Amino acid sequence: MILFMNGQFIPEELAVISVADRGFLYGDGLFETIRVAGGQPFRLMEHLDRLQRGADFLKLRVPYNRSELAFAAAELIARNGMIDAILRIHLSRGVGRRGYSPRGAHSPTLVMSVSVLSEEPRPTCWKAIIASFRVAADDPIAQHKTSNKLAPILARMEAEAAGMDEALLLNTRGEITEAASGNLFWVWRETVLTPPLSSSALAGITRSAVLELCHKLGYPTAERPLLPDELKKADGAFLSLSSLGVIELSEVDGANLPSSPITRALRDAYERQLHQPG
Amino acid sequence: MILFMNGQFIPEELAVISVADRGFLYGDGLFETIRVAGGQPFRLMEHLDRLQRGADFLKLRVPYNRSELAFAAAELIARNGMIDAILRIHLSRGVGRRGYSPRGAHSPTLVMSVSVLSEEPRPTCWKAIIASFRVAADDPIAQHKTSNKLAPILARMEAEAAGMDEALLLNTRGEITEAASGNLFWVWRETVLTPPLSSSALAGITRSAVLELCHKLGYPTAERPLLPDELKKADGAFLSLSSLGVIELSEVDGANLPSSPITRALRDAYERQLHQPG
Fold it and tell me: Model ipTM?
């Protein structure tokens, strides 16, 4: 596999960083996970926009402009002969002085890589638990896709230890924020709902894509804080992931959730859109 | 400079890790910062114990036992001719499969490095702001020294942008948890107080050392949640840092704090202890 790193295309085994990189030391960075379908990165510009917003938030310099990054992505996909794949961009603050202050860290590290989307049939339905710990409500950091990912990692570990597929996260107000690996939606009659960003949900690119599809297909949408008990009474629920698209939730914390025709309609529409050029 | 990495002593410039290391991707790891005084790492065993507790929490394997780590630390300090220095141990989960699940990541990365303690006179007094965002209260992750450090990094950036030295963090209940780089103490008459771990404070090794010194010197201690207004009425306040020891706070959010003789007594006792053998 070839990677793009700090301006060069290099073989995977040569793609190494200093152990003093602040990405490694403190998770001081950001990333994007982008679906590649038919050789094309899906909604790449939205991902690059979010990366830039995150970089502005962390006061971190993106060392290439959007068109340079888009060009590198296309070249990387082509050089690796990728058709259905996951493209990842990791940006860290690079090497600085000892300690938390980013003073003196002026050379960010940017790595772009691709990996084949698993050839096994992708899941369409997951069972979830609710993680035992809570994340901060109203957390400004949570809106960005940063490299501080221990909360979803620990949540996912709890799910796997319980023999489940995924975990939902609660914030300190007891509201469900999102799943470890994507945003949460639920269906109530004809309406498609999702927690607001103030619940500490990530501003997901696939979340936006799903909301747009709802408008296109005529389903009303709303942002609403969600308590676990309300989710268990929903007419259906699903997650939106950049990597896997729309995945239905069939169970949350032992409660069965009905399968909604709206979830299936959105999943089909999303998959069709993935394969439309442009 | 020589580093210890995955069992070998190697020059700094050869100490590199894969860009697929989960430490770099997600901050999926832990670290310890240990003061070296007179060539001896201070309270090394307590730091190694905390590293082990963090590793148990993250279900991460520490690839060496305590005596191997202590031997490597001593050898590293000697090879680099360090007298007054900072020893750092970083442990990450290493390379795994794509995604948050740690399945398949079986080779943790362990890096130990030393750096000279700055020869400039060390600060004895800092001015602090209170960071604008809040961290989760009762966060089990916060008790461990993980590599997810964006909250203290952003807090420190806010402080520096305001021309201040340090930032204190609030939790979602509005309690002060700790400073970006160490635990907080305050003095009320003869009593030395510090927030409980349930405020989401790190179980600092220097925090424990300071509490022990209080007992030795005859100052009563207590753990108590702390609101900013109470801090501003304190008879004194200070931070405890593994790297820098006891640092007095002279100002918080524009309010002057009195200098307490108890702070000075604890700082002197701590510095003396650093240089006692054993």
Answer: 0.96
